[in-house]
Amino acid sequence: MKRKLILFALLIMATGLRAQTLVLHHTDGTTSNVELSKHFRMDVTDADFVFTLKDVTFAFSLSDISYFTFYQKKGDVNRDGDVGIGDIVAITNIMAGIDTDDEEKAYLTCPDGHHPHWIDLGIGTQWRCCNEGASTPEDCGGYYTFDQAQAYNPPSREQIEALLDNCSSEWTTQNGVYGQKFTGPNGGTIFLPAAGYRGRGELYGVGSWGYYWSSTSYDENSAYGLNFSSGGADWGNYYRDNELSVRPVFQIMATGLRAQTLVLHHTDGTTTNVELSKNFRMDVTDADYVITLKDATFTFSRSDISYFTFDQKKGDVNRDGDVGIGDIVAITNIMAGIDTDDEAYLTCPNDHHPHWIDMGLPSGTQWRCCNEGASTPEQYGGYYTFEQAQAYNPPSHEQIKELLDKCPSEWTTQNGVNGRKFTGPNGGTIFLPAAGNRWDGELDNAGSNGYYWSSTLYESLPSLAYYLRFYSENAYWNSIYCLYGHTVRPVR
Questions:
Q1: Is the pTM of this model over 0.90?
Q2: At residue 26, does pLDDT exceed 60?
Q3: Per-residue pLDDT tens for 268-278?
Q4: 291 DSSP β-pair partners
Q5: DSSP letters along 416-485, please?
Q6: How many CA atoms lie within 13 A of 130 on its CB side?
Q7: 393 burial via Cβ count (<10 Å: 0-12, 13-18, 19+)
Q8: Residue 294 contacts by C-beta under 8 Å, 6 or more apart in sequence?
Q9: Which residue has the higher pLDDT, 28 or 111?
Q10: Rg of the chain over CA atoms, in angstroms?
Q11: Which secondary structure element, helix H or strand E, spans residue 483, and what is its range?
Q12: How far apart are CA 399 and CA 424, in angstroms?
């Protein structure tokens, strides 16, 4: 079956990027390897995948390729278990607020075991067959606070009401797992496992209750969600810091894909609008941004553009506060396990955070200037369990020890925020805010203590993991229960 995908191309520019192997898995079970070096470009058409390297071009028929993988597994945006061209398409779709899948990509039931699939229930919204973080419809998947859940496109309250009002449901078991089965007017079905919820670091109600976030707030402390049990299904509101399941959705466009406006913000303060229709393509060269539409091509000098935004704000992958070409480049970099930003600084050179800070450490480790989820060095950012934190490249235990051993630190305030400033052997500095931590839905010790996850489990007790801890008098490493919500400061 041919996929009608968005047509685009990306060119990664950098110096000293290590080669990555892209593995093409053919429908006959064989594989082909493509070595991706410093410069590569990927095009997707209705018929082919085309890979252009510096000296050679590879073209593969869509009908001949099952899926793609990179040897370094990162950036599985579309949660299909592999990292490949579909993930770039997925992040592009999210960024533009559009979807390039047509009716042949939505099903009444899962057609095979290669989950996830989009299920058409005949109610105008398609629901994914699996929970976020799950690989089968019966898997519970991950548990998320309301704020964390918004990254995965949960249904709105209205979409939950449409599900309840227009679909019959029954309490049942599927492959030995209890949950609720919803059947739409067209016969399409989805199964939602009774995954319970997480609170106080413990799971409650697994096998008896299902709690699923919406995208709709109730007030500053709570938000709407779907709940069900053997007694039926309904919507309610729950504390935002509870960790519930997420079942992603997307809205079907009744008359095709709507146009989106890409806004180019020039260095002189002016802006240019480019209307992006169903098919568009973006190329990045050393000198220019080139945007190709069906009937026109726009070329803009990179030195003339400060940043890009879409009218619909989604998919700020590189956490710069805006959604644009940098986010597509960022997700491509993450997927390939490479980084196209060669610039590292001793201190932040401007307010367009984040930046990478070189502190002159023997290992060569560079620390980001901002916490994960923050847009300035002083903002606390998000709070993550140890498992969730691993998506954001936290430092290892050894890198934390190196920071403590090689960089003197002082308790200080920066723009009115308490925290600790670390100064490297070369004079490079980072500020880590005392963001506190979360437990049982409560934020504790904000302003007085900092808790930052590492990437390393405690060797003799894997329910614990190492972290960086500091307060006004001291900074040190320790280990703690993995289900605490700590901040993350990424490294590379």
A1: no
A2: yes
A3: 877 777 765 54
A4: 282, 298
A5: TEEEEEEE-TTS-EEEEE--BEEETTEEESTTT-EEEEEEEE-TT-TTEEEEEEE-SS-EEEEEEETTSB
A6: 22
A7: middle
A8: 277, 279
A9: 111
A10: 23
A11: none
A12: 13
